[in-house]
Design a protein that fits this description.
The chain has about 160 residues and is of the alpha+beta class. The chain has a single domain, classed as 3-Layer(aba) Sandwich (Aminopeptidase), CATH 3.40.630.30. It is built from four helices and five strands; from the N terminus they run E-H-H-E-E-E-H-E-H. It has helices spanning about 15-30, 40-50, 100-115, 130-140; strands at about 5-10, 55-60, 65-75, 80-90, 120-125.
Length: about 160
């Protein structure tokens, strides 16, 4: 794996919203064959920028072109008296995959997590996405003893 030296990771700004919206729509089609409603996704992404209590986005850029994004959401842990951050909506442009971008983003966010006193990081992954699971394990994450269940209202 060759890491691209020009990649920079930062917290996203409102100006990145269009790229994030496009990434979310592409990811839904790639992973689940779903065509997301543009207006709904646009409102969903901009709501995070308007209300930071919902989460925050991070992006990776190559020479000022956004090539990856992810969202962090928060879970309060009464056991730890601290937040746990959840990685969500991780997307890397295909030609940048397997080049260390997620590792850079993870390391950047983990440092932020430690500065802010966050208890830890979590994510969920499709059970059949073995490549992603290997990536997360290589970063020192483990496939904890929890299993995720969900109920979702309506369509995406």
């Amino acid at each position: 794996m060759i890491e691209k030296p020009t990649i920079k990771v930062r917290q996203a700004a409102v100006a990145d919203a269009m790229a994030i919206i496009a990434f979310q729509k592409t990811m839904a089609m790639e992973t689940e064959g779903l065509e997301l409603d543009n207006e709904l996704v646009s409102r969903g992404v901009t709501t995070v920028f308007d209300d930071p209590s919902k989460g925050r986005y991070y992006v990776a850029s190559d020479n000022d072109i956004v090539v990856a994004s992810l969202m962090i959401t928060y879970e309060w842990s009464d056991w730890r008296n601290a937040n746990v951050w959840w990685f969500q909506s991780v997307y890397v442009v295909p030609e940048y995959r397997r080049s260390g971008i997620f590792r850079k983003m993870y390391e950047f966010i983990r440092a932020e997590c430690e500065k802010e006193g966050v208890a830890g990081l979590r994510l969920y992954v499709e059970t059949a996405n073995f490549r992603a699971q290997k990536t997360y394990e290589a970063l020192g994450m483990n496939g904890s003893h929890y299993k995720t269940y969900e109920w979702m209202r309506g369509k995406y």
